Amino acid sequence: MARKIKIEPNKRSCWWRNNDPGVKFHTTSEPFVISQLGQLVHRVKHRTTITREWLASHHTHDTAHFWCGNATGNPEFFYDVPAGRMVCARCEAALALESARRGVDHKRAADLVGHKLNLGAMVPIKVGEQKPTRKAKA
Ligand SMILES: [Zn+2]
Predict the structure, then answer these.
(1) Torsion sign, CA atoms 73, 105, 101, 115
(2) Nearest residue to 75 via CA among 30, 123, 17
(3) Which residue from 75, 90, 112, 134 lies 20 to 30 Å from 3 (Cα-Cα)?
């Protein structure tokens, strides 16, 4: 059974976008997402369904914005965290900050699923160096 929590719709200040019949702003969603290429499980901040019948390659698809600032298209939504996955530490920190600032009670991931979870983060690794190809004029 898919259980959902309340989320904020991703409304913007532009009138035409908010009134576009091809865009559905969700007010509830499963709280977790794994993006297609990602490793971490992120917390859903906004969920939007976009329907573009006239675009052959872009029929109905879901988009998800995460609390850490990343986003993805056509993700899988989960209520529980799949075994062996780590929850995005930045998402959890952003939710805790939002709870403290606005007084909104955003539950921690571990409280939602009812068991212990590992937090994780992606770390960039330097794999090379690029030098300018043109010589700078003196
Ligand atoms: Zn995240």
Answers:
(1) negative
(2) 30
(3) 90
- How far apart are the CA of 71 and the centre of ligand 1, in A? 9
Residues 6 or more apart in contact with residue 116 via CB below 8 angstroms = 110
Domain-wise residue ranges, the chain:
5-120
Give the model's pLDDT for residue 55: 64
Å from CA of 41 to ligand 1 middle = 7
Ligand 1 centre and the CA of 53: distance in Å?
30
CA neighbor of 41 nearest in space, from 69, 72, 81:
81
Does the pTM exceed 0.90?
Answer: no
Query: What's the average pLDDT block by block, 10 residues per block, for the chain (138 residues)?
Result: 81 72 88 85 92 69 91 90 93 94 90 94 92 77
